[in-house]
């Protein structure tokens, strides 16, 4: 999936400068990317103990929706770039302008706002791009009422697919449960997807460790930095999400039933477990950086040692050649016919003795002294 481009988002932010609070301006993809998103898709699921009905509705059908119906309603919106559509949904379900503004701003951190008739909270859905070892995310917004649930996604993510299949099943027990249980199920599905991202990051981290121990390279250093950025992005989202879920478990507004609260606590435990696992990966990445620096330093030391050995082998020969190269009239072996060969033999003999000493001290191997 194509990652949103940061410079386009900045241009979108500029549109809000000077506007009063509650002004509805879409902040997300750039104008070129908005055109590729197409028309938003609205899917409505209404259900009760007798069963479930699913339909794709149009913008014109929004006015006919009744939030006070006896059936439980789940309206999911794929595509929030249509400001007029979001405004119409807000009119039908009596949503505060600040809530609509937050839905349209796709760069929000997870948050929770309480109102008398509904709860509004946001989280993010993550994708892991293995080719670049990076993560991209999209915002998912929830509006939970007494008998309705609104979900807003930037595009189809597949995060809610397991929950939809459970609702579509014949005689599904979810149809007999409250709308609060549906909100829990969707939130739990998103958090479960986080562990898939975590597992892929962990696999790449282990492969990087093996590659670093074999032969470190600058490419692996870049991959370590990419994974560190990904872990920071995940941590930036999951930490506030933990507080959001913790606030939901306290159920101060009474939107969750007593039977749903234990399930919310389970989701909270999952987020804590995810944060702990993420911290372990971050510590491991720090260890990979140490391995890389140690490997590079060790390789440099081996190269310097090889150069030192070569230099030391030539030092005696240089000394002997320098001595015999002095311009004295009387020098040993000057008059000898084989003097030159005797000098070469001495140079070679000293070099062989030194090579034997270096070999005994393991200076000629790639292994370091224990």
Descriptive report:
The chain is of the alpha+beta class. The chain folds into two domains: 6-294, Beta Polymerase, domain 2, CATH 3.30.460; 326-370. It has helices spanning 6-14, 31-37, 83-92, 97-104, 161-168, 179-214, 218-250, 261-324, 339-360; strands at residues 41-48, 51-57, 72-78, 111-114, 118-129, 134-145, 148-153. The two termini are 49 Å apart. It is 53% helix and 15% strand. Strand 4 (111-114) and strand 5 (118-129) form a beta hairpin.
Q: Which features would summarize this protein structure in a list?
A:
15% strand; disordered N terminus; 7 strands; 370 residues; 7-stranded mixed beta sheet; 53% helix; 2 domains; single chain; alpha+beta; Beta Polymerase, domain 2; rod-shaped
Short description:
Helix content is 53%, strand content 15%.
Task: Give the averaged pLDDT, no decimals.
Answer: 82
The percentage helix is 40-55%
Counting helices, strands and paired strands, the structural category is: alpha+beta
Task: Give start-end ranges of low-pLDDT stretches.
Answer: 1-11
CATH 2nd-level architecture of the largest domain:
2-Layer Sandwich
- Percent strand equals 15-25%
- By DSSP, the count of extended strands is 7
CATH homologous superfamily (4th level) name of the largest domain: CorA soluble domain-like
CATH domain class of the largest domain: Alpha Beta
Element-level helix/strand string: HHEEEHHEEEEHHHHH
């Amino acid at each position: 999936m194509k990652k949103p481009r940061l410079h386009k988002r900045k241009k979108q932010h500029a549109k809000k400068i000077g506007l009063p609070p509650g002004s509805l301006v879409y902040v997300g993809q750039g104008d070129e990317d908005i055109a590729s998103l197409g028309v938003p898709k609205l899917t409505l699921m209404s259900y009760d103990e007798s069963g479930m009905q699913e339909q794709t509705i149009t913008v014109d059908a929004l006015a006919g929706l009744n939030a006070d119906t006896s059936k439980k309603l789940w309206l999911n919106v794929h595509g929030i770039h249509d400001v007029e559509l979001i405004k119409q949904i807000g009119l039908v379900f009596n949503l505060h302008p600040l809530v609509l503004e937050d839905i349209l701003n796709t760069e929000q951190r997870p948050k929770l706002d309480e109102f008398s008739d509904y709860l509004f909270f946001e989280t993010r859905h993550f994708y892991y791009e293995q080719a670049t070892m990076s993560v991209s995310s999209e915002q998912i917004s929830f509006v939970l009422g007494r008998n309705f649930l609104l979900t807003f996604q930037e595009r189809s993510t597949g995060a809610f697919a397991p929950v939809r299949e459970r609702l579509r099943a014949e005689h599904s027990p979810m149809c007999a449960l409250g709308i609060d249980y549906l909100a829990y199920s969707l939130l739990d599905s998103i958090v479960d997807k986080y562990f898939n991202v975590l597992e892929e990051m962990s696999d790449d981290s282990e492969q990087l460790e093996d590659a670093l121990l074999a032969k470190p390279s600058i490419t692996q250093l870049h991959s370590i930095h990419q994974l560190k950025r990904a872990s920071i992005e995940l941590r930036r989202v999951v930490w506030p999400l933990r507080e959001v879920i913790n606030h939901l478990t306290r159920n101060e507004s009474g939107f969750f039933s007593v039977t749903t609260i234990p399930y919310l606590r389970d989701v909270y435990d999952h987020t804590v477990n995810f944060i702990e696992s993420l911290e372990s990966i971050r510590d491991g990445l720090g260890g990979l950086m140490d391995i890389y620096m140690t490997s590079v330093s060790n390789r440099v030391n081996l190269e310097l040692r090889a150069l030192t050995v070569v230099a030391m082998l030539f030092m005696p020969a240089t000394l002997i050649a320098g001595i015999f190269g002095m311009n004295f009239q009387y020098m040993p072996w000057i008059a000898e016919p084989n003097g030159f060969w005797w000098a070469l033999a001495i140079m070679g003999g000293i070099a062989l003795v030194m090579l034997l000493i270096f070999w005994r001290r393991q200076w000629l191997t790639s292994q370091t002294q224990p």
